[in-house]
Structure formats: structure tokens, C-alpha cells
Amino acid sequence: MGRSTGVQPMIGFDYVKARDVNDAVSEIARNPNASFIAGGTNLIDLMKEHVAQPRQLIDITDLPLIQIEETAAGGLRIGALVPNSDLAYDERVGRRYPLLSSAILAGASAQLRNMASTGGNLLQRTRCLYFYDTATACNKRQPGSGCGAVEGFNRMNAILGWSEHCIAVHPSDMCVALAVLEATVHVTGPRGSRAIPISEFHRLPGDAPEKDTNLARDELIIAIELPAAGFPRNYTYLKIRDRLSYAFALVSVAVGLELDGGAIKDARIALGGVAHKPWRIPGAEALARGESPHRKVFGKVADAILDGAVGFGHNGFKVELARRAVVRALEQATAGTPQSQSVKAIV
Ligand SMILES: Cc1cc2nc3c(=O)[nH]c(=O)nc-3n(C[C@H](O)[C@H](O)[C@H](O)COP(=O)(O)OP(=O)(O)OC[C@H]3O[C@@H](n4cnc5c(N)ncnc54)[C@H](O)[C@@H]3O)c2cc1C
Ligand code: SF4
Fold first, then answer.
1. How far is CA 255 from CA 188, 227, 234, in A?
2. What does the pLDDT look like over 299-341, one tens digit per residue?
3. Residue 132: exposed, middle, or buried by beta-carbon count in 10 A (0-12, 13-18, 19+)?
4. Distance of alpha carbon 273 from alpha carbon 240, whole angstroms
5. Is the pLDDT of residue 1 over 60?
6. Rounded CA gap, 302 and 292, in Å?
């Protein structure tokens, strides 16, 4: 028997290009080991690392899902294939939902954002180091194998909403803004179409960390719908990371405020980089309503959001970092500061 070289064999797969939405859905229903591919910026990396091994790729890039349209309710409907760049720079999005533009532009690089699709961004997988390393245990990659991160190098991992089976975080910036905007995800599949509120789209790991979302394997994301309220005046996306660009969030905070006569009428706050899904605590937001926008109030809100937060050794610093980031983001949003996309972590 020859010695292993450590090189993994190339794995073959079929490739088809879907003609229309019905074709894409029936193709995936036929093949239980198929995956849709859009921009490919996450899936191809996962395939190269042998983390994902689809037997068939269904290319959806020809589907007519690249429009951004007005809705009757005064919002916008964004096709699942709209590139992240086009979405961020759309004039209506920049004017009515600048929080969304800011969050997208805080992510990845210009080249990646040109390729990355809106639907793919929702479904990008965690950046937990052990998920990508097939030589280590990972319940998300291989259910029942254990979790290498709990006692490993967990600097980027969760402080909230984790389970003993998985402490991964969802890495998206866009989704944190969508949580504040209370977007709806429209999907279709062999059993028909449905609308999923963004708060129910991603899930906590519980005892099934292999499932990132409540989307069925054979469902296709068609569009994301934004309601009319976009917090165009008092918003912020604050992303704390190790490098000024091209780095995932250690902690990020999206805030949308509605101020009325010197008091907070409405406050929405979502955190990224801290949990398996964008983290929102409506009870904490309620503490701000009717109050003056002051640091003391923001501190109470931050404490309520971070209630129960726990680190795992390397990421313990995130608890205080997140608390301070929430206070700072609320101050920026109150001041109407257009944006801060370049905050470097000093930890
Ligand atoms: C080096 C690097 C840095 C990055 N930095 C950041 C960052 O800082 N912040 C951030 O938010 N993101 C970051 N990203 C992630 C990037 O935003 C995602 O890879 C991208 O959004 C995925 O979109 P895609 O169209 O390329 O998806 P793909 O790779 O094509 O697909 C991803 C997954 O989504 C599924 N899928 C795609 N479209 C649909 C659909 N319509 N319906 C159903 N399933 C679908 C695919 O089957 C696959 O499972 C980074 C990526 C890289 C490579
Ligand atoms: S935290 Fe989750 S993704 Fe990371 S090693 Fe553990 S099970 Fe895998």
C-alpha cells in the first residue's frame, strides 16, 4: 500500500445551466446532491477545500432575477441575482436604505462584491477555521464529529446564541442590515412559493448546526423585499475588524433610529459577528423608546442585548467590544453621521 501524499483526489461533478426558475427548481428536485451556483465566491472555495461536494452544479446566473423594483407598499424588491455592488450603489438604495449600502460596502472587496449575488450572500457559510479544515472535527461539516472550536482557536466565534454543538457565527454584513430593515426573503420550490421574514431565515445551531437556515435544500431564493421604512437619516453600520478592508467582522452593529422631538420613537439594533444569525433583542430596543438619546440609555440597551454573552477563551474580549460598539453605533446614528466603515480593532 502506497503512502498518502496528503493530496486529496479531484472530485467530478456535472454542470447544467438553468433556463428559467421552473427549470432550476425541477433540476434540484431531481438530484438530491445538487447545488445552485450564483457568483460562486463561496461555493467554489468550499468545493476546492472539499468541504462541499455537490455532484451537480445548477448554474442560475441566466435567470431573470436581476431587477430592483418598487413595491406597492413603498419598498423595494431586490432580485436574488442582483450583484452586491449593484445593490449597494443603486441610487434608490443609497437614498432610502443607506444602512444597507454601508453594510454591503463594508464587506469583502470590490471584485468579490461584483461577483457576489444577493441570494448567495444570505447563504454564505461560516468562516470558522475548523469548518474549512477537513482534518479537524466539526459538527457543521460532519454532524456528530465534535466541535474543534470550543477548545480551539475561537477568536472569530460566537458569544451569544451558541450551543455545545457549535459556536460558529454567520459572517455576512448585508444580513445584519437586512435584520434591522426587517426584510422578507421570497423563495420558491417544488412545494410552491413562500415568504420568510429575515428574523426566521437564519437559525441558531441548537443540536443541528449543519443547518444554517430554514430554507429547504430544494428551494430557490427569488428576491428580498424591503419594507418602506429605511431609516435614511439616523442609521449606522459599524464594523470592527482586524484590517481596514477585506476582513470579516469581529463585531458589527447595524442601527436604525427614528427620532421625534428629541426622543427616540423607534430603535432597531442588530449585531453581526457574535452569533449564528444576526442578533436582535426586541426587548432591549424597547428600553430606548421614549427616552432621550443619551449614553446612559445606550449603555442599558447594550447591557440588555449582551445579556448572557460568554466567550470561549480567545474570544472573551468580544463581550465588552460588542457592548462598546453598540453604544458607539447608537451615538453615531443619533448624530446622523453618514458612515464609519473603517474602524480598526485594537484588542
Ligand atoms: C475573501 C473573501 C472575503 C469576504 N468578505 C466578506 C465580508 O467581509 N462580508 C461579507 O458579508 N461577505 C464576505 N464575503 C462573502 C461573500 O459576500 C459571499 O461569498 C457572497 O455573497 C456569496 O454570493 P455568491 O453569489 O458568490 O454565492 P455562491 O458562492 O454562488 O453560493 C453560495 C451558496 O448560496 C447558494 N445559492 C446562491 N444563490 C442562491 C439562490 N438564489 N437560491 C438558493 N441558493 C442559492 C449556493 O448553492 C451556495 O450554497 C467574502 C468572501 C470571500 C471569498
Ligand atoms: S463552531 Fe461550528 S463550524 Fe466551528 S468547528 Fe464547531 S461545529 Fe464546526
1. 30, 16, 8
2. 999 999 999 999 999 999 999 999 999 999 999 999 997 764 4
3. middle
4. 9
5. no
6. 15
Grid coordinates of 169: 457565527
* Residue-level pLDDT at 246: 87
Q: Is the CB of 138 under 6 A from ligand 2?
A: yes
**Amino acid of residue 179:** A
Listed residue (27, 248, 223, 237) closest to 122, CA to CA = 223
83 lines ligand 1 (CB under 6 A): no
Mutate to test the pocket of ligand 2, among 132, 136, 139 (most ligand atoms within 8 A of CB): 139
CA 139, CA 169: separation in Å to the nearest integer? 14
Segment among 202-211, 215-224, 240-249 with least mean pLDDT: 240-249
Q: How far is CA 280 from CA 102, 138, 269, in A?
A: 19, 26, 6
Whole-angstrom Cα distance, residue 185 to residue 178?
Answer: 10
Grid look-up 459556536 returns 167
**% of the chain at pLDDT higher than 70:** 95
C-alpha cell of residue 264? 427616540
DSSP 8-state assignment for residue 202: B
- Lowest mean pLDDT segment, chosen from 190-194, 241-245, 291-295, 318-322: 241-245
